[in-house]
Write a structure and sequence with these properties.
CATH topology of the largest domain: Endonuclease, Chain A
Low-confidence stretches: 237-245
Number of helices: 10
Order of helices and strands: HHHHEHHEHHEEEEHHEE
Strand content: 15-25%
Oligomer: single chain
CATH architecture of the largest domain: 2-Layer Sandwich
Helix content: 40-55%
Mean pLDDT: 87
Strand order of the largest sheet: 3-2-1-4-5-6
Largest sheet: 6 strands, mixed
Number of strands: 8
Structural class: alpha/beta
CATH class of the largest domain: Alpha Beta
Number of domains: 2
């Protein structure tokens, strides 16, 4: 009782298509395999990530608190599939579907019974950077507003009027764990860098404190996201032709 076409199964069997997590869970349920297919899909999706990024993805999944500053793009855990496709498509020649699926699979940690607390500060420039077109951006900003309704996801916008700020050196993430050393993570145009060096952690934490203080409040951030969504990317028509923000 999997509810899919024979063509889809054939594509999966011949490795022309990677099964989704939902498909694998249904196969496990139908065949009583105890999660074997779901675990295999997780390994396949992880394998398409850059080798240097895989250790970070594993640590991210274990973190109890994720705080991130994003200067240019929406953080991967908060991206819609269409936004992720536009981002990954810039530098991906093949396996784009699988790489998008891998990014979406990372987001499953936010749906766990014990999700990490996630605090995001992002530059207002992220809202204005047109990634994928107006429809994609409108849906992405609406997704950010929806995520803010979760108690464990907090989004602050660092407004243009903040001027010079502590994040001008670029994006960075701080991962905190229960019982393990905290980690600061940065990326350059070649690879990522992860360290538990105490001095780097102090510097990252101090910078993040300054960014949070300079950013809009949670309520003000939601208002700014909604305003940019409406003014820059327009209204979304309903089926009856009316328009809604």
């Amino acid at each position: 009782i999997i509810f899919c076409t024979g063509s889809l199964i054939g594509q999966i069997e011949t490795t022309k298509r990677v099964p989704t997590r939902d498909f694998s869970e249904r196969v496990d349920a139908a065949l009583g395999t105890g999660g074997v297919f779901s675990r295999l899909v997780g390994l396949v999706l992880r394998s398409v990530m850059p080798t240097w990024f895989q250790p970070y993805a594993e640590m991210e999944a274990r973190a109890s608190y994720i705080s991130t500053f994003q200067a240019q793009l929406v953080y991967g855990l908060l991206q819609t599939p269409a936004y992720a496709r536009a981002v990954l498509g810039v530098r991906t020649e093949g396996e784009l579907d699988t790489k998008v699926a891998a990014r979406m699979d990372r987001q499953r940690i936010l749906d766990r019974e014990d999700p990490p607390l996630m605090w995001v500060v992002m530059s207002e420039a992220v809202l204005h950077q047109d990634v994928g077109g107006r429809d994609v951006m409108r849906d992405q900003l609406a997704h950010l507003l929806a995520l803010q309704r979760r108690e464990w996801v907090k989004v602050q916008i660092l407004p243009f009027e903040a001027g010079a700020h502590a994040g001008q050196m670029g994006s960075f993430n701080l991962l905190r764990f229960e019982g393990d050393p905290d980690i600061v993570y940065t990326e350059d145009f070649v690879q990522g860098h992860m360290t538990a060096n105490p001095q780097a952690l102090r510097e990252g934490s101090l910078r993040y404190d300054h960014l949070q203080a300079a950013a809009l409040s949670l309520e003000g951030s939601a208002e700014r996201i909604a305003r940019v969504m409406e003014e820059r990317y327009g209204h979304q028509p309903e089926p009856d032709g009316r328009a809604v923000a």
